[in-house]
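## Example pair
The file below holds two records. Each record gives the amino-acid sequence first, followed by its structure token line.
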Amino acid sequence: MHHHRLRRPLAGLALLAVGALLVGCAGGPAADPADSDAASGGERGGKDSITIVHAPINYEVAYIAEREGYFDELGLDVTITPGGPPQDNIAQIMGGSADLTIGSWDTIVTSTAEGMPLLAVASAGVVSSTVDTSGIIVRADSGIETVAGLEGKTIAFNDLGGGPHIVTIQSFEKAGLTEAAFEAVRIPFASMQATLESGQVDAVFPSDSFYEQMIALDDYRVIANPTREFRAGLPITIWTATEQWLAENPGTADRFIEAMERATAFYEDPANHEAVLQIRQDVGGMSAEQAEAMKGEFAVAIPLGVTQSVTEALISTGAIEDNGQIKTSEELVWEDSPTTE
């Protein structure tokens, strides 16, 4: 395993984006100009048929919108596609195979600073100020009790340079250490438990159902919950599109946001709890007990204050070089997206 600098995977994504732009695919899946589908989209215009990509976590509201008919009611024909880490998902909208995708605030900030024409459209899962849905986990027999105990150790993240990676750096700094004090490797959420159990890494940073699954076992111990500590209120996952796609499909984006608002209201209603659990079992392949243990929170409006503070943390931790191209929160959010201060 080799130590990874934070900017490496993002630079690669920027190069991929340039290639996509050169072949003219940055605006989402191509549409036939003669197709009325591409010319409808309500009063403001846009496509009716879209492809969206969700992350391995925080997928509930997308499937609620599909199963409860919210997309249909709003005239949207939506193909939902499972995705992976934020940078991989964003590559799909840059390459033209999807219209909207789940990204992360960190990835949007770093990618746009490298020239990628992205905008945040709507929040999805958010960091709770009271309930932990992610954290740094070690084996119970490891002897590691604190973040400082991870000095010289290897920590696995779902994506390098993403939120969990950054808040871990912040935790190390709080403990008087630096990024160089640990080795970061990329491991998918689904493989984290087995990788930690086998001793290939010393700690993992799972989220959502993967976190709940591990903390339910006596074999593992949580030593820190830095996401809540440093990012309460921040979107964990955030719907993202290209500037070109949003310019061409504003009515489509309006309707998608409305569908997410309806689905979020459904999710929050206790009367619909069983329907939400069923989605987790069907989509996430988890047991009824695992589905019940999940505690995800959702919102649609994008909070400009906490997103700006996270942007500043990306700069201060060295996750992104201040090249004069870093945008403010207001600049990174689509002008018609719902926001809060």
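Second record, same layout:
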Amino acid sequence: MKITQPEAFFLPVSRHGNGLIKLIRSFYRQNGIKNHRNFFKTVALALLLKLSNVITGVRVGWSMAKYFYFLVMISLFSCQQAPPSKPKAQSQNNPAPKTKPTPVTPTPKEPQAFKVSVMAYNLENFFDNVKDHDETPIADEVFAKKISQVAKGILQVQNGKGPDILFVEEVENINALNKLQETHLAAAGFKSVTLLESNDERGIDVGVISKYPVEGTPVLHKMPFSDVNPTRGILEVPLKLPNGKILRAFAVHFPSQANPVEQRKAAAELLRDLMIHANADYVVGGGDTNIKNSEEDREKIYSGTFKDFQVTHLIAAPKFPGSYFYKDHWDYLDAIFTREKVMLADTVNTPKAAATQLNENGSPKRFDKADGTGISDHLPIYVELNLQ
């Protein structure tokens, strides 16, 4: 028997024949089944007939078997689920773009401020015990006492540690400063001692002792009038600060009051120009200017020549009367200058707490070779700088 319309067999057994017929036709189209001779369908029908006969003992007709076959197939296909979609693999040649994190701009750190203490001290005839020229060397024991007294005057600041930068005047030579450093200042942490010999008639020079290393070559600048007055020059010493910046220190000792005021004015102008044009982050000068108060009133050297600078006694007076006492009168002979506005005004003073440093009237006591008391006829001038 040749069956041309297999779906006709389902009409007697289905209440919804039309819907089932449409479903079967759709199933046929989707699965490529054209007629009952499809091999898989034929095998499945044969198995269903055999299974029905074995289980029930009832002979099942061909039409009923086809009905069961299609119900089973429709159930199987309706229960199938599409396999989960796999993510597309990225080619190694075309990797997935990586999301770059938004760069975080670090907040710039503000430079840390730190203080630098500065002292200028006229040591009054600080000669050693070695004969260099025509002078008579002082006795060894006298030199030892002088060194001890000078050290007391220097170390009376910063809780016994002394200043970071020390300008000294009236020093005979580098040997005298080295002896001072080796015997009494070694524990204070000074790292450099600088003095360059000049052609001063008295044989006295200026020097710089510092807790900072020398960075570069020190220079001794001659005074513009040195051809008529052989005198000490201005010593320039470049120092490297802990933060890597450069501070240039200028040590000075202007001509005494026995010389014309024009020489002190010329010396002040040279110092000003050197400090203005110095290639450094900070510039500091200090020493004995020999400018009396009466002379300043007339010539305006401090307040005129250095009007763009900070000068210790100009920012702190009348906190102290002066650094030098002569004929019952105080004068600001000693001063410290800064090109930058870095002085802390409340730190300016003339330290005078060292033992036997003062006379009974409060004036500085000169060193006495007989009993080893006193230090110098000058008081030191001191200030702290706020640097970054």
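Notes on the second record: The CA atoms of residues 61 and 112 lie 103 Å apart. Residues 1-17, 74-82 have pLDDT under 50 and may be disordered.
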